[in-house]
Write a structure and sequence with these properties.
The protein is of the alpha/beta class and 422 residues long. 43% of the residues lie in helices and 15% in strands. It contains 20 helices and 15 strands.
Length: 422
C-alpha cells in the first residue's frame, strides 16, 4: 500500500497530539500585565518566591506595554490564546466587563477561608463588584489627591507648608505668591499645576455624570460643575499661576520634570509620581492633601488596578491562587516600599511600609483618609470614547481660552448622553 505525503503528515500530527501530556498545561497559569521595570521586578520576585513554596504551579508572566495592552488582550481572547489572569485599571475593567469576558470571583472568595475581603478598602472592592459578584481583586487604589510641593521654594518665600485641611482659596493665594516672573513680566516658574480638573468639579458638588455606577446623563453642564471648571480655568488664564495645555506642549517639558527642576512649586497628581521624584537631590519635598472647596466638600477622582480571571481560563483554581499571591500583604508591602502605589489592603496601608514609612513622601498616610472621598470613572463601556472624542478635546479649548463653556458643553452633553444610553 502506498502511503502518500499527506497521510504521513496527518499521522505525525495525530501522533504528536496523542503523545502530548495534558498535565504539561494543567499546572500552568498565564498572567498578563503592564508596568514599569520596577513593577516587573517586584512582580517577578513575588511570583518566583511563591512558586518556590508551590512547586507544582508554573506562572508565565506576559508583560505588555500599556499603550497596546487592551487591544492585544482582546485580540488574544478572540483568537483563543488568552491568558488566565489579567491586570486591569478601573477604566479598562469597565471596557472588558462590558464584553462579558470575566469570571466571577465570588465563589472563590466565599469558600476560601484564608482570604479576608474585609482587609481591603471597601470603595475599591465595590468598584469591581457588579450586581453582587466580585470580578477583580484590587492591588491598589490611586486617588488623584496628592499636591507635591517644593519645600525649598516655600522656605525661600517664607510661606508655611500646606496642610491637609486647606481649601481652594488657600491654594490660589499660595500659588500666586509662588509664581515668579522676570523683569519683563514673563513667567519663570509657576506656582501650581494639575491635570486633574475633575477634582474641582467633584469637590464643588458637581459631577461628570448623574450616577457613576449606572450613568445615563452627562452632568458637566450643572451650575456646580461649571463653577468647578471655571475655577480651574481661572488658575490658568485669569490668575496665570498654572501653564495652559498648549504652553506645556511648547515648553517641551512635562510637568513632572518642571517640578523636579524647580520650575513648578506645586504639582497635583497621584502617588505614582513618587518613584521618579525620589531621585530629586537638590531640594526637599513632600505632599499635602488635594484642597477642599469653599463648600467644605472634599471629593477626588481615583484610579486603581485589580487582577481578574478570564472565563476562558483552563485553570481557574490555579488562577485564583495566583491572584491571591499577587494581592497578598507581602506583595503589596513591596509595591508600597517604593512609593509606587497605595495598597488596597487596609492592614498594609496602615502599616510600616506605607503610613509608617520614613521614605518620601512622608505624608502619604493622608491618602488612607482620602479613600473615604474617592469617585471612580463612570461605569459605562462608552465612557472612554466620550472622554477622548468630546470631553478632553473640548475642555482643552476652554482651558486654552479658545472657547467658552456655552460653546462646548452642548455638544459634550448631547453626544455623551447618546453614547451613555446606547
Amino acid at each position: 500500500m502506498k502511503i502518500t505525503k499527506s497521510i504521513l503528515i496527518l499521522i505525525s500530527i495525530l501522533a504528536w497530539g496523542c503523545g502530548k501530556d495534558p498535565a504539561l498545561d494543567s499546572n500552568k497559569v498565564r498572567f498578563a500585565f503592564w508596568g514599569s521595570p520596577e513593577e516587573v521586578r517586584i512582580i517577578t520576585s513575588v511570583i518566583k518566591e511563591w512558586q518556590r513554596d508551590n512547586p507544582g504551579i508554573k506562572v508565565v508572566l506576559e508583560h505588555t506595554p500599556y499603550g497596546g495592552y487592551s487591544s492585544k488582550i482582546l485580540t488574544r481572547i478572540a483568537g483563543g490564546d488568552a491568558p488566565d489572569v489579567i491586570a486591569v485599571e478601573v477604566g479598562l475593567f469597565t471596557s472588558f466587563y462590558s464584553k462579558g469576558v470575566f469570571l466571577s470571583l465570588s465563589p472563590f472568595v466565599e469558600k476560601d477561608e484564608s482570604f479576608v475581603l474585609n482587609d481591603f478598602f471597601s470603595p475599591i472592592i465595590e468598584h469591581f463588584t457588579i450586581e453582587g459578584d466580585i470580578y477583580g481583586i484590587p492591588r491598589d487604589i490611586a486617588p488623584f489627591a496628592c499636591i507635591y510641593y517644593n519645600k525649598d521654594i516655600f522656605d525661600q518665600h517664607n510661606i508655611p507648608y500646606p496642610d491637609d485641611d486647606w481649601d481652594w482659596d488657600a491654594l490660589l493665594k499660595t500659588a500666586k505668591r509662588l509664581t515668579e516672573r522676570d523683569e519683563k513680566g514673563k513667567i519663570k516658574s509657576y506656582g501650581f499645576y494639575t491635570w486633574a480638573w475633575q477634582n474641582f468639579v467633584l469637590a464643588n458638588g458637581g459631577g461628570l455624570v448623574d450616577n457613576v455606577k449606572v450613568p445615563s446623563s452627562i452632568r458637566l453642564n450643572t451650575q456646580a460643575s461649571r463653577e468647578g471648571l471655571e475655577f480651574y480655568r481661572d488658575l490658568i488664564l485669569k490668575h496665570k499661576v498654572s501653564p495652559t495645555p498648549s504652553a506645556l506642549i511648547n515648553m517641551g517639558m512635562g510637568v513632572q520634570m518642571m517640578f523636579m527642576t524647580g520650575r513648578l512649586a506645586m504639582l497635583g497628581s497621584g502617588i505614582w509620581e513618587t518613584p521618579a521624584l525620589q531621585n530629586i537631590e537638590n531640594f526637599d519635598w513632600d505632599i499635602a492633601m488635594f484642597p477642599k472647596s469653599p463648600k467644605d466638600i472634599r471629593q477626588v477622582a481615583t484610579g486603581g488596578t485589580a487582577y481578574c480571571i478570564l472565563k476562558t481560563s483552563k485553570n481557574p483554581e490555579l488562577a485564583w491562587k495566583t491572584i491571591k499571591a499577587l494581592t497578598s500583604a507581602q506583595a503589596m508591602e513591596r509595591i508600597a516600599s517604593i512609593g509606587l502605589a497605595q495598597p488596597s489592603r487596609i492592614s498594609v496601608a496602615q502599616g510600616p511600609y506605607w503610613a509608617g514609612s520614613e521614605e518620601k513622601p512622608l505624608n502619604k498616610k493622608m491618602l488612607n483618609e482620602v479613600v473615604k472621598s474617592v469617585v471612580f470613572p463612570p461605569f459605562s463601556a462608552n465612557w472612554r470614547e466620550i472622554e477622548e472624542l468630546y470631553v478632553k478635546p473640548k475642555l482643552d479649548l476652554f482651558f486654552n481660552g479658545q472657547a467658552e463653556l456655552d460653546d462646548i458643553l452642548p455638544e459634550i452633553v448631547e453626544a455623551g448622553n447618546k453614547l451613555l444610553r446606547e
